[in-house]
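README: folding subset

This subset contains proteins for which both the sequence and a predicted structure token string are available. Records are stored as plain text. Below is the entry for GGDEF domain-containing protein (481 residues), shown exactly as it appears on disk.
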Amino acid sequence: MIADAEHMLLRWYAVVAGGLVATYLAWPYDLRQWPFLAVTLGVAVPAVVSALRRTPGAARAPWWLMLASLGLYNVGNVVWILIATTGGRVTGDGSVADLFYSAGGVLLLAASIAVVRRQGRGDVGGVLDSMITAVALGGVLWDAVLLPALTRQDASVGRQVSLFVTVIVIVGTLGAMLRISLVSPAGRTASVRLFTAGVALALAGNVAAALTIDANGVRPDWTNNVFLAAYAILGAAAVHPSVAMVNRLGRAPKDDLTRGRLTFLGVMLVLTPLIGGGRAILGLPTDGVLIALSSAALVPLVMVRVARLAAQRRAAEQALHRLATRDGLTGLANRGACLDHLSAALDEDSHDLTVLFCDLDGFKPVNDRLGHAAGDELLVAVADRLRTCVRGDDLVSRFGGDEFVLICRGPEAVDVVAARIAELTGRPFTAAGEQVHIGISVGAARARPADTIDALLNRADMAMYEAKKSKSVGALSLIVV
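--- output ---
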């Protein structure tokens, strides 16, 4: 029922907004401000309000920002309608309306970044990518296309600054939407695609408006049709049923320090100086201040981005190392890590090296009676206590099942560690809410010259079995060989 209502709302929106956009140029020139305001104020704004009403409280930030953005754009539109129509001709921009357009663009960028952060669970990398894209591609568009046109038109400084800010923030918004498309399932929805298309049309409208102004400062009114289409499509993104996917919390993106990502960052870093330098060599107008400022901004941004990617790569490698060397249940060193440690210890110096092979007594009855979950709880408790038995340079590992291997150094290692193990067996353990008593059989083998890993472990293992034959549950039995 709700889905049907949403599709009906979208159809009505498409008819009304599409009709106004399609017939805009057919209206009498003196009346065209009315279909323009009907779309920007009477259609697009209510569409965003409807998205705001359908969005849970925690996810409303992007839509509040977008609503505020459209509000500023509409203030600029009203100001523009009041002061930018003279003698039946639409003059070039450059009025106070540009201030509202620039501020609206900044809030639209903030809305897209809010979506990026929500879809990526605080995706700082996506925000940095958006900023890098804005500075690099926006700078190229400005230096190679817009600045030469504004120079020929002898545009005012205010007009140049306003258009520069507008272009940078719109390109940054497109970069943010591209980030969503690449890392989030929401990026494949019609709502995100419509939003991206609306922003792209806004950029096209600004470029067209800048390039088509004639010598008298007049631009053709069809450029307003492009802006009108941008408003209508942005509103369609808000009323489309797939907006529900955008409102959901996404998953953290996987950021890898790949060759493709490094290539992207490298290209963004050299793009503006390369284009600007090429234009300077050809004697074409070039904004030297822009090149200097963009380089000053891009270098630290790219360095921070690479540093974050490198840190994430190190964290991933460390996580893989932990998975490869740690027992998943107890967090102790696993069998492979134990063997590696023992091999290194034998290669370094076998003097005063002792291996203690430990096997739990009474574990199987507890596991059978209380269940595997209780058995796992008991193994974790034993592991925690064994950690307290070893000294700083010793190693405690889970060798498999209910077997643990300790690797110790020092002439008194066996006596000290065995005393601590005896103390831990004297206290009951808790498993599945019950107190249970278990014992530990320990076989200790001191390393001999030319010992191999297998020989040392086998002696400790055999000593453990000898100890097991002569003990009772709840006590420690130790045999040293």
